[in-house]
Fold this protein.
Amino acid sequence: MARSKFLVAALAAASLWAQGASASVLDTVKQRGVLNCGTDNTAPGFGYLNTKTGKIEGLDVDFCRAMAAAVLGDAGKVNFVVVTDKSRFNALQTGQVDVVFAHTTIKPVRESAIGIDFLPINFYDGTGMMAKSASGVKSVAELDGATICTTQGSGTEATLASFIRQHGFKTTKVLTFENLEKLFGALQSDRCNAMSTDKSALAAWRGNSARPDDYKILPETLNKSPFAGFVAANDSRWRNVLRWATFALFQAEEWDITSANIADRLKDDSAFVQKFLGVKGGFGKDFGVSDDFVATMIKSVGNYGEIYDRNLGPKTPYFIDRAGTPNAMWTKGGAEYSPPWN
């Protein structure tokens, strides 16, 4: 009898373990009704608090909104949690956020040691440096003995350490700051001779300054820096739905499905487009969301090209041209690409 009771208890425990093991952040988010999305608020063009409107905006912010639209059917059902380069991984591991979009570079150590899974690359960048124009500095090779600033907990810290070793700089110093706003302030106040971070952030802060010509982005690129959102490791249900939601934004641009023409495209004769948009069948149910999740995203935030133009396009202060870069669609010589949906 005792053995029988032990067996029953063991089976019950195993059942509970199996239920817990199969639980996903997807279920938690759907039950909660709100997506907790980590993003920066000091990176113009990506995640930035617009003091004029009081709203946070940027490419990363729009990806947060797109994921909320895909999972919950409403781009407004998102709670933005501000993270820094230093805090972003901890915020995910401690459950403060469900996903992070915060200009984060894909690196093997982050997936292997930190325990995260990256989503598809949504922006290709590179590490650079910016100095004041009045300094006369024209190349990174002239920074021996200089003080270079970057952000705490960023991949740029390791890149700078490698750069200093490779160039044999003996007296160069590195100072770190909590976020990009404080980093740029350090350059403005001459606490450092140059600031180093992703070139997109350098361009954004230069373009957003009162006198952009006062700053010069040096020509060298110190390291590759492909950005992607990320989720906690080993949750394939959650990772997969966000991964394919991201791919859908790329595919929508390739097929010229936009927020302006979505009503007409829902009537498209193509069986592939109809399934993509969830008109007849769809992919959503297999991912645990509505079949029209792609259409809902496009209605709410547009395709990838619309998101890019709204935040980094020619009508913004921080224009970063896609043409001739990996950020262009693969059909135009770039690297933004979705696996086939048909």
Q: What stands out?
A: Confidence is low (pLDDT under 50) at residues 1-21. The chain has 14 helices and twelve strands. The two ends are 58 Å apart (CA to CA). Residues 127-224 form a domain with the D-Maltodextrin-Binding Protein; domain 2 fold (CATH 3.40.190.10).
